[in-house]
Structures are given as structure tokens and as C-alpha cells.
Design brief:
Elements: H1 9-36, H2 43-59, H3 64-79, H4 83-105, E1 112-113, E2 119-120, H5 121-147, H6 150-159, H7 164-193, H8 202-233, H9 249-270
Antiparallel strand pairs: 1-2
Length: 272
């Protein structure tokens, strides 16, 4: 250990100090985990870190680090056994990113590459950069949504001092999306039971879909009115204030550390 000091004294002192500090931190983390079991980071901190990470991804000039971030998100999804939901939600961003890459590769600039369709080197480079940014940002958001419950996200947004009206609207929207899907499925099954989607031609099928959409809007309006009356009968008020626990020291340290790592990645990307 101390033979590092025989070279550059300052370098040896710094390496030795960091070595012992890492040992102390590692021992503290093991004891803390053993004492408290599985410890999750505050959802509000994770939302802030995800927001900062997406900003950092958009500021990067090379595609290497965004690709690494996407790979880390995939590994995390595999570890948490949510890879099926993760890949399912990643299909649309993937198609969008591929479309952008295709369009950018056809943009004139740089050397021309004669394939089946002529493409250009500068367009491919810029398209790869946008592709990596889109995939990394989408991976971060999808992983955040899959690993954090809806209630935790809404409470974290409230903790971040977002106006209560916006939180209530977001809460109702998240509930009604599920209601829309369930009611739409019921109406579709009812139409199929009555041969509404039989081989009557494309025009008839469009009419059936339009009738389902109209009934869905009517049912959603009726249900929303009933839910609102039920909430009022239970003394609900839009200006109800909820108490929040203060941010723990451990969560604050983790948040500062992750924010510093994100800033460091952006700086490293600038000097690659």
C-alpha cells in the first residue's frame, strides 16, 4: 500500500486516502444494507436525477455514452425481471429513432455512399447521434415508470412543489386511461358477439369503431360524474394538503453523487 508514496508524494497520498475512504464507505454500505434490508432511493430524487440525465443526454455530442446508458437500462431491466414490459414499451421509440436515422442518412452532406439508395456520411453520423439520444432518454423514462409506482410518482411531484391542480389532473388522467381501455375492450367484445366485426366490408367496420368510440365517450362522462359525486360524499377537497417526510441524508448524498456523475459524463463527452 504505502509503496505508492515512493514515487510522486502528492499522487501517492491522494491514492492512499481514496483507497481507505472507499474501504470505509464500502463497509458502511454493507452494514447499512444489512441493518435496513433493501433500501430504495426516494422517488423524488429519482425523478430529478432522471430529468438531469435526459438533459445531459441531449447535451452530448457523441453517441458512445448514450449507448452505454441504454445498455445499463437494459441490464437493470433484466436484473429486475421486467425486460418484457421494458422492451414492449421501447418499440415505439425504437421505430421513431430508426425513422429519424433513415431521414438523416438521406440528407446531403459529407461523403456520398452509393448503396441501394445513396446516403451521406455526415447524415449517418448525426442520425446515429439522434438515434442514441432518443433510445437512451426513452430507456431512462421507461425504467423510471416501471420501477416506480404511480402513487409514488404523484407524491414525489407534490413534494417537488408542483401545483396541486396539475397533480389532480394527472391523477385523474392516469386512472381514466385504464378505464378507457377496459370499457373499450368490453364494447369491442360486445360488438364481436353481435357480429359487428364480421366480414361486412371496411366501411361497416369503420362505422362499428365509430359507434364504439361514441359509446365510450358517453360512458366515460357518466362514470366521471359518478366518481366526482362519490369523492364529494367522502369529503374530498382539491385543496387538501398532505404532509411529507423530510429528505433523508442518505437520499441527499445519493442525489448529489448521481448529479455529479451526470455532470462528469457531459464533461467527458465534450473532451472525447
Amino acid at each position: 500500500m504505502f509503496e505508492w508514496l515512493t514515487g510522486d508524494p502528492l499522487n501517492g497520498i491522494v491514492i492512499t486516502l481514496f483507497f481507505f475512504i472507499s474501504l470505509i464507505i464500502g463497509r458502511y454500505l454493507r452494514e447499512h444494507k444489512a441493518a435496513n434490508g433493501k433500501r430504495n432511493i426516494e422517488p423524488g430524487v429519482m425523478i430529478i436525477i432522471s430529468f438531469l440525465l435526459i438533459i445531459g443526454i441531449t447535451l452530448m455530442r457523441h453517441w458512445y455514452i448514450p449507448v452505454i446508458i441504454s445498455a445499463l437500462c437494459i441490464i437493470t431491466a433484466l436484473h429486475r425481471r421486467i425486460i418484457r414490459d421494458f422492451t414492449g414499451k421501447l418499440i415505439f421509440p425504437l421505430l421513431l429513432a430508426l425513422f429519424i436515422l433513415l431521414v438523416q442518412s438521406l440528407t446531403p452532406g459529407g461523403d456520398r455512399i452509393d448503396w441501394i439508395v445513396p446516403v451521406y456520411s455526415d447524415g449517418i453520423d448525426y442520425g446515429l447521434l439522434i438515434f442514441s439520444r432518443v433510445m437512451a432518454s426513452a430507456s431512462v423514462l421507461i425504467l423510471l415508470v416501471l420501477t416506480t409506482s404511480r402513487i409514488d410518482i404523484l407524491e414525489s411531484i407534490r413534494w417537488l412543489r408542483v401545483p396541486g391542480t396539475m397533480i389532480e389532473i394527472a391523477s385523474f388522467m392516469s386512472r381514466y386511461i385504464t378505464t378507457f381501455f377496459k370499457e373499450g375492450k368490453k364494447l369491442t367484445m360486445a360488438q364481436q358477439a353481435r357480429c359487428g366485426f364480421s366480414s361486412n366490408g371496411f366501411r361497416q367496420r369503420i362505422r362499428n369503431i365509430a359507434s364504439i368510440c361514441g359509446l365510450l365517450i358517453v360512458r366515460a362522462s357518466a362514470k366521471s360524474d359518478g366518481i366526482y359525486k362519490a369523492m364529494l360524499s367522502r369529503a374530498w377537497k382539491p385543496d387538501v394538503k398532505a404532509d411529507h417526510l423530510p429528505l433523508g441524508i442518505w437520499d441527499a448524498v445519493i442525489g448529489i453523487l448521481l448529479a455529479s456523475i451526470i455532470a462528469g459524463l457531459v464533461v467527458i463527452d465534450r473532451f472525447i
